[in-house]
Design goal:
With 172 residues, the protein is mainly beta. The protein is built from four helices and nine strands; from the N terminus they run ααββββββαββαβ. A hairpin with a 3-residue loop joins strand 3 and strand 4. It binds a DNA duplex (12 and 12 nucleotides) through strand 3, strand 4 and helix 3.
Length: 172
DNA sequence: AAAGTGATCATG
DNA sequence: ATGATCACTTTG
């Protein structure tokens, strides 16, 4: 079942674990790939010093302020595209970074595999025929850890357990 | 351990 | 216009 608007308007803190085990679906020139999400991270609001919106709304970050259910894709370190799911309500900047799918651990690796780049920034995940997410009833078990690659953030924000890694699960 | 790589943002 | 920064990956 394809995930709808009501799923994405939940808070990122609630959605990050819920996205584990869901199927990330991509249509590339008619070839459809579906892979289970294995790793996610929360970026939550202007008060989160690791979140891109921590320095306010800009041309790049304005998309985080939209209502949940769209893609936020940006180029990191000049090389890697990173894919986030914008979540929550309009005017509050929050998103969940997809860090891994089956067989492709690493946020830059999965976007390369799925051909996700800035052309998909702002893509509507609820209505898109190119990029969407499905729930097939998989129930996930997971662990939490601090987030990766945010040494520049405040100590308080660095130690938050906002990374979620799938350990096991089953179809129900 | 460190390079490679380029969009973005703050400064001038 | 310029320079610093950066939610990563690969190589040695």
């Amino acid at each position: 079942m394809k995930l709808g608007k009501d799923f994405y308007t939940k808070r990122a803190t609630e959605l990050a674990p819920l996205l584990l085990g869901k199927l990330l679906c991509r249509n590339i020139d008619g070839k459809i790939i579906k892979k289970r999400i294995t790793e996610t991270e929360i970026y939550f609001g202007e008060n989160d010093s690791a979140c891109h919106a921590s320095r306010g709304k800009t041309e790049r970050t304005k998309i985080l302020y939209e209502e949940g259910g769209i893609a936020y894709v940006y180029l990191c370190y000049g090389i890697h595209h990173l894919f986030n799911v914008v979540t929550g309500l309009k005017d509050f900047p929050e998103a969940v970074l997809i860090r891994g799918i089956e067989g492709y651990q690493g946020p830059g690796k999965l976007t390369k595999f799925l051909n996700i780049d800035r052309a998909l920034n702002g893509e509507d995940l609820v209505n898109s025929d190119k990029l969407w997410i499905e729930d097939d009833g998989y129930v996930a078990k997971y662990i939490t850890t601090p987030r990766i690659g945010i040494d520049y953030a405040s100590e308080e924000d660095r130690k938050r357990l906002w990374r979620f890694v799938l350990t096991e699960g089953e179809l129900k």
